[in-house]
Amino acid sequence: MFSSSILLQILACALYNNWWPMLSALMYVLVPMPCLFFGGGSTQFLISRDGGGWIDAAKFLTGASAVGSIAIPIILRHADLINTGAMFIEFTSFIIFVFTVMCFHRASLDDEW
Question: Among 44, 64, 65, 92, whose Cα sits 20 to 30 Å from the Cα of 57?
Answer without folding.
Answer: 92
